[in-house]
Structure formats: structure tokens, C-alpha cells
Specification:
The protein is 54% helix and 20% strand. The protein is built from 14 helices and 17 strands. A hairpin with a 5-residue loop joins strand 4 and strand 5. The longest helix is centred in the middle third of the chain and has 59 residues.
């Protein structure tokens, strides 16, 4: 009930909390917007340099003289461009296959530029591209390379003009940005890799975002990146190839930010907590504690113990005290009924075990009569039939004996039952099976009594037929297992070869299998081999 009261007041607390969170979010959004504007203003030097290089390459690439250029006849021209833009480390003109036609500084004759990601991007776009190289072909140092395609009068690309800005020049631009705006500045390529960053001073510098964070925020617009103990902004310089990253130390210490957030949330949460505490106190005193004592009394009643009223129950509302008296009367009535049920169940189990015991005795008497009749039979086939009838009656008696002797009236241990069946059937064959080699693999298995009886007959018929086929030192293999779903698998295999038809035993096996819903498999070349799969009782 205290929880329900708290939930009833939750909307008002949630609204107040949301107002506080909105204020914190608005403050954060304003801070991010200020950083974004500051970052856009701070990269003016870098952006001017990049735009200047791009414009120079575009003008040179569209110059008519560039379209008729021959190897080495443009060094003076390119040298004047390099001198004018002092931050350029090298500038070169190549044909479409990468052979340098003209460069400053000069390249060896027929020198071919190594394939690079920048050249692949420029060729793939058929347009301007930028990228970082660890070792410039002509500048021999780390550099930012820009490439612009050169076209003939038919607008067909015939080569590229490329310029390299060394990393030290980029670092100089970034240091200027840091000195003006007090930020840690860096440049990153399209993979989020930092290719240049401002020089560290003696003090602590705010960290930069990771490569994964940078990659996630690359685009045509500036993006705020939350970094631990810092705030960073990613700004496109020459999208999608080059980006600037600005990182500032927090405007306020972390404890101040968390304190402001705590103050925004504390008031509504405190009011809500006080309301819940008041509701809990009232419910605890007048409802929960009496009900808890009533529950303890109910457990004592269930154990048959006598219960004395506690102080909480004595001072409880009349309804709870009346419920306690009703429960005491009900517990007394239930104890009497439970005692009578236990006595009746014990009598029923004893009677059922007695029934199984008498059925077993009667079946053994019938088996004895059949055995006497078989010994007195003059015809061999008559004696064999009476002996098989004796075995079948004896198997049924064995099943009933297991039921009453185990004390379990619902389930039987099949592995023990089958082991006893094998022992009795082999013992009943006498000298015929004295040299038989027996191999058994009987895993623990259980079945209810409704399935155990037909399964006993099925197993007995299968083993009897295998024993009938055996005439000497053959090996008899018997296998039983039960999986976790309750499915039973049984197999009999004998190395002997049967002569003639399978006889009535096979028909009995099929009949019992149908009763169990089981599958029976046989080997046409070895009729004495048989395997059975009995589904679980729950899935049948």
C-alpha cells in the first residue's frame, strides 16, 4: 500500500524531476552550442590554408598550359608557386599512371609516384581529394597531400596536380589556434586518425576523442563529442577527407556539475521520499505488522502448533482479529481431515500392495501348474509351448512382485526388472544356455506400472526368441537406456541365426509395441536382433 501511495504521487514527482532535467539539458545544450561556435571561429586559419591550397590546385589544373605540359618544363612555374605559398613542402604534376612530369623539388627522370589512398580516392571520385601520408615522395616527411585532376580540352582526365603541406606547418596552425582560444587542437582524416595536433605545454591538456568517437561524428556539420574531463567538437575542414577537433577543459569542475544536477533533482525526490515514508509508517503500524503476525500464525497453524496472540494482533483492527480466529478454527478442522486422509491413504497402499502380492502368488501357482504340465507332456512341441506359456506367466508374476516388494506403486525400476528377467529366462533354459556369453548394458530407467507390464512382456518375448535361436557359445547382448525426456530405448542382439519364421512371439512383440506406441526395428538377416523405442509417457 505504501508503494501504491508512492505511485499515486509519482506523476507530480516525475513532472518536477523532468523540469529539473530539462533545465540541466538546456544548460548542456547551450554549452555545446557555445563550443561549436567557438570551434567554427577557431579553425579559420586552418580552413583558409586548406581552401587556399584547393583553389591554387584548381587554377593550375585548369590552366591551358598545364594540358600541354612536357616532362620537366614547368619547374620554374611550380617553383614560383611554392615560393609564394611557403607552407607547401612540394608540388608535382603526374600523368594518369603516376609518372612525374614536373615537380618542385625535382624528381628523378621517369619517377613514378607510389600508389596511395589519396590517389585512389581522387581517381575514384574523379575530383579533388586530400589525405595524410607518413612519408611524402618528394618532401620526404609526413605531410597532408591534396590532389586535383588535370583534364584535356575534351574534359578527359590526363593526370593530377598534387601539393603537400608538411605536418610541422599544420602543427604551427594548430598552435596558433590553441594560443588564441585556449584549446587543444588536432586534425583527423576520414578514418578518425589524428594526423597532427597542437604542441603540448607544461600543464595538463584536455584529452582528445578516440578514433571511434571521431568516426561516429564525421559529417558535413560540426558535432559535439563528450570526453572524460573534457568537451570536444569535430568540425569539417574538407569533408569527407579532413576534419578539425577542438578539445577544451570543462567550464566547471566535475563536482560542481554533479552538484548542480543533484540540486535539480533533490527537491522533488526528497518530497516524494518523505510522502512515501509517511505512508509506509502508517501502513506498517496499522496494517503490515498485524498482517505479518497473522501470516506467522498461519504458518504455525500449518505445522500444527498452538499460537498465542501477539501484542500486534491484540491491538489489530477487529477485521484482522476475526480473521485470526477463523483461521484457528479452520486449521483445527484441516488437521483432523488430514489425519483421516493419511490413515485412509496408508490403508489403501497396504491393500494395493496386498492385491499385487496375491496376484503374484496366483500367477506363480499357474506357472507351477504349467511347468508340471510341460514336464509331463509326451510331445516335444507341446512341452515347448507349455514352457513358453510358463515363462510368460512367470514374467507377469515377476512384475507384480517388483511392484509390491519395492513399495513404489506408481513406477518400477526397469533396469532391475530386465536384469531379473534375463536371469530367470537363462536359468530356465538349463544346459542349453550354460555356454552362452551374456553382455548387458542397463542404464537406470523407470516406467509407470501401466507401461511396465506390456514392456515386461515385450522384453521377455524378445529375450526368449534370442535364447531360442542360441544353440551354443553365441554372445547375447542386451542394452537399455532412458534419455532426459523419458524416452526408453531397448535392444537385443544375438550372434546366432534363426531358422524359419519368427513365430507367435513376433506377433506378441508387435502387439505390445502397439499398446505402448513404440517403434520396433529388426534385421532381416538376423531375426534374433531387435531394437525398440518407447516414447515417454508424457509425450505418448
Amino acid at each position: 500500500m505504501a508503494l501504491l501511495l508512492g505511485l499515486a504521487m509519482l506523476p507530480a514527482g516525475a513532472i518536477a524531476t523532468q523540469v529539473g532535467l530539462n533545465a540541466v539539458a538546456a544548460r548542456q545544450s547551450a554549452y555545446e552550442e557555445v563550443l561549436s561556435r567557438r570551434a567554427l571561429q577557431s579553425i579559420s586559419g586552418e580552413r583558409s590554408a586548406i581552401d587556399e591550397v584547393r583553389e591554387v590546385l584548381r587554377v593550375l589544373a585548369t590552366s591551358p598550359a598545364m594540358q600541354q605540359i612536357q616532362t620537366g618544363d614547368c619547374r620554374e612555374w611550380l617553383g614560383s608557386v611554392k615560393r609564394r605559398y611557403s607552407y607547401l613542402a612540394s608540388i608535382a604534376v603526374t600523368d594518369d599512371s603516376g609518372v612525374v612530369l614536373c615537380s618542385e623539388p625535382a624528381a628523378p627522370p621517369t619517377y613514378r609516384m607510389a600508389r596511395s589512398a589519396v590517389r585512389d580516392r581522387a581517381a575514384g571520385r574523379d575530383g579533388f581529394a586530400m589525405g595524410f601520408v607518413e612519408h611524402g615522395a618528394l618532401s620526404h616527411q609526413p605531410a597532408l597531400v591534396a590532389m586535383e585532376p588535370i583534364r584535356d580540352e575534351n574534359s578527359r582526365r590526363i593526370g593530377f596536380i598534387a601539393a603537400a603541406i608538411p605536418s610541422r606547418a599544420l602543427i604551427g596552425l594548430l598552435d596558433r589556434t590553441r594560443s588564441l582560444y585556449g584549446a587543444r587542437a588536432a586534425l583527423a582524416d576520414a578514418d578518425g586518425r589524428v594526423i597532427a595536433e597542437s604542441t603540448a605545454d607544461h600543464g595538463a591538456m584536455p584529452p582528445l576523442p578516440s578514433a571511434a568517437q571521431i568516426r561516429d561524428r564525421l559529417g558535413s556539420d560540426s558535432a559535439f563529442v563528450p570526453v572524460r574531463d573534457a568537451a570536444a567538437v569535430v568540425v569539417p575542414l574538407s569533408a569527407p577527407d579532413l576534419y578539425a577537433i577542438m578539445s577544451w577543459a570543462p567550464d566547471r569542475p566535475a563536482w560542481q556539475r554533479w552538484t548542480a544536477l543533484g540540486f535539480s533533482l533533490a527537491a522533488p525526490l526528497l518530497i516524494w521520499a518523505l510522502a512515501m515514508a509517511a505512508g509506509w509508517l502508517a501502513i506498517e503500524m496499522f496494517v503490515a505488522r498485524p498482517l505479518s503476525d497473522l501470516e506467522a500464525a498461519a504458518r504455525s497453524y500449518a505445522r500444527g502448533e498452538h499460537v498465542v496472540e501477539t501484542e500486534a494482533l491484540e491491538n489489530a483492527p477487529d477485521e484482522i482479529r476475526s480473521l485470526r480466529r477463523t483461521m484457528a478454527a479452520m486449521a483445527k478442522t484441516l488437521r483432523g481431515r488430514e489425519q483421516r486422509l493419511v490413515e485412509a491413504l496408508g490403508e489403501e497402499r497396504a491393500l494395493l500392495r496386498e492385491v499385487h502380492h496375491r496376484v503374484k502368488n496366483n500367477l506363480q501357482m499357474v506357472a507351477s501348474l504349467l511347468n508340471i504340465q510341460a514336464r509331463g507332456a509326451k510331445d516335444e512341441s507341446e512341452a515347448w509351448g507349455l514352457a513358453r506359456a510358463h515363462d510368460r506367466v512367470q514374467l507377469l508374476a515377476l512384475a507384480h512382485q517388483r511392484i509390491y516388494s519395492s513399495g513404489e506403486l506408481r513406477e518400477l525400476r526397469l533396469d532391475d526388472l530386465i536384469a531379473e528377467i534375463v536371469r530367470q529366462l537363462i536359468q530356465g533354459r538349463g544346459a542349453q544356455s550354460k555356454d552362452l556369453r551374456l553382455s548387458t548394458h542397463l542404464d537406470p530407467a523407470r516406467a509407470d506400472t501401466d507401461h511396465a507390464i506390456p514392456l515386461t512382456f515385450l522384453v521377455g518375448e524378445a529375450i526368449s526368441f534370442a535364447l531360442d535361436c542360441a544353440s551354443g557359445t553365441e554372445e547375447l547382448k542386451i542394452w537399455l537406456e532412458q534419455d532426459e525426456r523419458g524416452e526408453i530405448r531397448f535392444a537385443v542382439d544375438c550372434t546366432a541365426h534363426a531358422n524359419g519364421a519368427l513365430g507367435p512371439g513376433a506377433r506378441l512383440i508387435d502387439a505390445f509395441a502397439r499398446q505402448l506406441g513404440a517403434d520396433v526395428g529388426r534385421d532381416p538377416l538376423r531375426p534374433a536382433a531387435l531394437w525398440v523405442r518407447v516414447p515417454s509417457a508424457s509425450g505418448a
